[in-house]
Amino acid sequence: MFSPLIDQLIQSLRALPGVGPKSAQRMAFQLLERDRDGAERLAQSLLLAAAKVQRCCECRTLTEENRCAICTSSRRDRTLLCVVESPADVVALEQSATYRGVYFVLLGKLSPIDGVGPKEIGIDVLEQRFATAELTEVILATNPTVEGEATSHYIAERAKKHGIRVSRIAHGVPIGGELEYIDGGTLAHAMSSRREL
Amino acid sequence: MKLIENEQAFMLHRRAYTDSRILVDFLSPNFGRVRGVHRAAKLRGAGRGKNRGHLQPQQFTLMQLSYRGDGELKTILSLENLSNPIPLTGVQLYCGLYLNEILTYLLPAEDPQPHLFHCYQSTLTALSNSTVGEEDICLREFELVLLAELGYAIHFNVDVSGSPIENSAESFYRFEQELGFSRVELGIQGVYLYRGCDLCAIAARQWRLEAVRSVAKRLCRQAINHHLGGRALNSRELFLTL
Ligand SMILES: [Zn+2]
Would you call B149 helix, strand, or coil by DSSP? Predict the structure, then answer.
């Protein structure tokens, strides 16, 4: 229906999350009809990012540096290590501006049926860190799913073996939420991890 | 088109399918292992209020499932939690993931499994109440039921010739897949031998002795590996000691 180059562009745009054939088509025509400069910039950024962005050698988050800005910062407390599943989780925690330590990004979670084991999410690298770095606390911030909990437990066991204190972020009622609309699993968790006032 | 309504189910596994849809494997009593496509946001209770991230269905939670479809991949019409997740922690979680992995690979699609379904449910409950270091008992009991339900039952109280297994520490048996136990004299080379008393203990589900549990583990593992036909189970890796 379209010329080969346009067709190729539409197909490529579909690699983006949430983009089906219709929106890919709309995006392609927007770029080609109205925003050639934008299209050039997009192409340049994609090429550059795809060529240069890799994993930070220390925390495994995505960066074009060998070590990312957080890992190189002198203002971060390097004895605190927070373990998360994805680079997006790092961004979320950074935006909350409550954490001054450094991170370790698993880029996944243990999921045996999918063939994702400890090695696939860098737990061997993390254990190296437990063995060599001066850590006072490991904070586990994986998602509250079955796989996320299993991953946390697996890491916690290994951190404890190295005599490092381990904590798990709390899960419970969101601020502004109403108890009556919260699912039973979350409430059960909130109740069992209640704390004394 | 076949329409199934309000079937009880546990989710065995979920994976991303398209951006807004997930592929879910279930265990249900009347239809056994079922695979369906689920529009994630349709899950009841999701996306309420300002909560943008939607809730995904979770394992170890009794759900009510409705779906339609004649092919292997069903369209999930509704999915609702019937209770809170059975609370598994630590090693219990690895055990749960292990159960889900063997069910995924051993169960044929859409074969009714009413007994196995209830056994799965009670195994999860037993796991959540199990003491540290004794989770394996729940796994063994489940594996023995699973093997039996699939038609591969291991007979622990009769040997291949039909004689009862002798409940003694001095009678020895060898095991062959799909055949069973046969009596042998001690001293036979190159085969693993089982003591009659351990086999009788397994038959009676007496798990007090560590030795009995390790024999049961060995036998179940062999049988399951045999029926998996060479596929490795990844969840076993989680149990490897520190
Ligand atoms: Zn870094």
Answer: helix
